[in-house]
Design a protein that fits this description.
By secondary structure, this protein is α/β, with parallel strands linked by helices. Helices cover 40% and strands 8% of the residues. The protein has a 5-stranded mixed sheet, with helices on both faces. β2 and β3 form a beta hairpin. α7 packs across α9. The longest helix has 21 residues.
Length: 273
Amino acid sequence: MKRRLIFLLFIIFFTTHCNKGIYNASNKKYKQQAKRLSNELRMIPADELPTDSVILSKAFIGTTNFGLRKPNFVIIHHTAQESCEKTLFTFTQNQSQVSAHYVICKDGTVHHMLNNYLRAWHAGAARWGNVTDVNSSSIGIELDNNGFEIFSDAQIKALLALLNSLKKNYAIPSANFIAHADIAPGRKVDPSKYFPWQVLAEQGYGLWYGDTSLITVPSSFNTSHALKIIGYNISNINAALQAFRLHYLQTENTGEISESEIKILYALMLKVL
């Protein structure tokens, strides 16, 4: 029995040690890239002023008042892959050209993959309100999930703990915790209809609605206008409506918007206003 226990402990140690070693090369590349960027920041900026006769002289004078750019949004994704290990591998390959700040595994393990002040490549072609470069103002969180399964309790608990830290550290508004599907309607559907948005909203991460049975929607209410106020890109109104349903009704239904859906949309619009 004792020998078996020692053997099992050895296997656990050996496996953990080897798994960490897999990413030695990518960790080295990360440090090299971070060093290159930090060296660029320390340099006096290159002369970017145009050569023009109306400019009498040019000189760099460094201001003393500046800081790092701060993330203002959190975008939640599902990985659409079959394991955490597969996602970690994908995000450490140059040719993939995709990344995120965090990856959360089904068992609640959180992998921090990029400094939060740096720009990850997770949003792609996306828009929310007037923000057209979402990557530059957001933190991307990937949840290990293939898109057709329930998210584990351990995973959601870990996510909530992480969101609590991010909200406090960067003063991110509650309304700015959103889905990849929200910022890319018609192109993305993550984190899927199985994601518990109401649970997050009750903790202060994202918008939600209460009892809408007593709500009276004015006759002047406009669905497209309301979706736009919330933040959706309405260039494709059907796609925007589908993204709204996926997030707030957790359904993939299509077709004309119903009276009950209009009440929910109206309630959410009032929260934003």
